[in-house]
């Protein structure tokens, strides 16, 4: 691949809103939101896994899962 001299450096700019620590959410709120997001994602993956398993069983003539 030819070197096209593209600079891929990433520069992070600090948000001015982070300077006001009183405006930030408390850690327990942030953690609770993270837990809720992860639980929702896990639920979605579980639903996908169940749908894939049902599709697999539907493809086998007897529903046998030992294939």
Overview of this protein structure:
This protein has 67 residues and is mainly α. It has a domain at 23-59. It has one helix and no strands. It is flat, with a radius of gyration of 24 Å. It starts with 26 loop residues before the first helix and ends in an 8-residue tail after the last helix. The model has no long low-confidence stretch (mean pLDDT 85).
In short:
The protein has 67 residues and is mainly α. The chain is 49% helix and 0% strand.
Topology at a glance:
Layout: H1 27-59
Q: Helical element count?
A: 1
Shape: flat
Quickly give the structural class.
Answer: mainly alpha
Helix content: 40-55%
The first-to-last residue Cα distance is: 44 Å
Give Rg in angstroms.
24 Å
Query: Using DSSP, what is the number of strands?
Result: 0
- Estimate the mean pLDDT confidence: 85
> Which ranges are low-confidence, i.e. pLDDT below 50, for 5 or more consecutive residues?
none
Please supply descriptive tags for the structure shown above:
67 residues
